[in-house]
Amino acid sequence: MPDADRPAATHPDADLAWCHEAVQGVSRTFALTVDTLDEPMSSYICLGYLVCRIADTVEDADHIAPDEQAALLREFDAALDPADDTTAADFRDSVGPHLPPERERSEDWQVVANVERVFATFEGLPPEVREAVVPPAREMATGMADFVERYADAGGLRIETRSELEEYCYYVAGTVGTLITNLVTTLGNVDEERTERLYAVAEEFGLLLQLVNVAKDVHDDYTEENNVYLPAEWLAEQGVPQEEVVAPENREGTASVVSRTAGFARGFLDGAQTYLEHVPLVEGNTLAAWTIPYLLAVGTLRELSAHPERAVTGEGVKVSREEVFAVVTAAHQHGRDALPRLRESIASEPFHTAPSTAD
Ligand SMILES: CC(C)=CCC/C(C)=C/CC/C(C)=C/COP(=O)(O)OP(=O)(O)O
């Protein structure tokens, strides 16, 4: 959207408050993160994430035909493009017929329905914030459109190889790493060497978090969204066709691919930790905000190793509420030097039962 056409938020404070409320409903990860950041970074990340989440909701919608989904994602990209006349209102008009009826609308779809409000609030942020968010958000939306088109005939995504899984994770989460890094490096006075170092590992942080989700959500991704992210080549080695990924007779075979995916994710832990060791704490950015998802990923990987089959049956793989609480508390209490010790402790046993939490 060109600058001249930028709508002013009519009730900026109420709109911003609405956006903060909305984040609490759509993402457990970002609910914690946004709460743990200080202002103004908290609002920058809140809006940046909501913009990305709209694309994600369209991409996950299996009630929309793939060609229509791809067209919506491309229109969303155009609405973000400063050089294009397409507006959030145009996108809202196009997505309108696909919105679930108001009473049945999930929080994700309420955010999509309120795209104009999200954009108006986003437009009220400083220009350098918008310039940090828009390119990665556009890369995400167009990457998602490409994937939806690639698998249009399959009815849902069917990742084939390890490298395709990595490519997919880059578009849906690596781009978020870039978005965060754009914000913390352009708003802070960060030297070139540190900036380069951060970009080199930001993508790995996103890949880590997304691969953990891929490994733990096998059942729901297939039954609720008709997507199989476990690579066909890995499943084939276990004799499992992608269409039978959650069939009871394939439980063991699929579980071993879940473990393999968790191992793949583990390979990105060092990169994510390097990010945490160097991320600049500027404009309300806090170390704890990013330490929390990192340590929760470590805990989820531990649970995945212990019970990979639970990702297949739908029983669910997650760290307990008590452990989340203990991790959040520890992330607030400790600095960068404690990261290796916290990681090691959480990798071996649930954190709230570990002796070191009583330190
Ligand atoms: C540099 C850096 C910090 C990179 C990390 C980038 C990042 C946070 C990517 C988001 C990936 C992700 C899987 C979020 C959680 O899922 P979700 O939002 O779908 O919701 P859930 O938490 O409810 O599963």
Automatic annotation (TrEMBL):
<dbReference type="InterPro" id="IPR044844">
    <property type="entry name" value="Trans_IPPS_euk-type"/>
</dbReference>
<protein>
    <submittedName>
        <fullName>Phytoene/squalene synthase family protein</fullName>
    </submittedName>
</protein>
<dbReference type="Pfam" id="PF00494">
    <property type="entry name" value="SQS_PSY"/>
</dbReference>
<dbReference type="InterPro" id="IPR002060">
    <property type="entry name" value="Squ/phyt_synthse"/>
</dbReference>
<dbReference type="InterPro" id="IPR008949">
    <property type="entry name" value="Isoprenoid_synthase_dom_sf"/>
</dbReference>
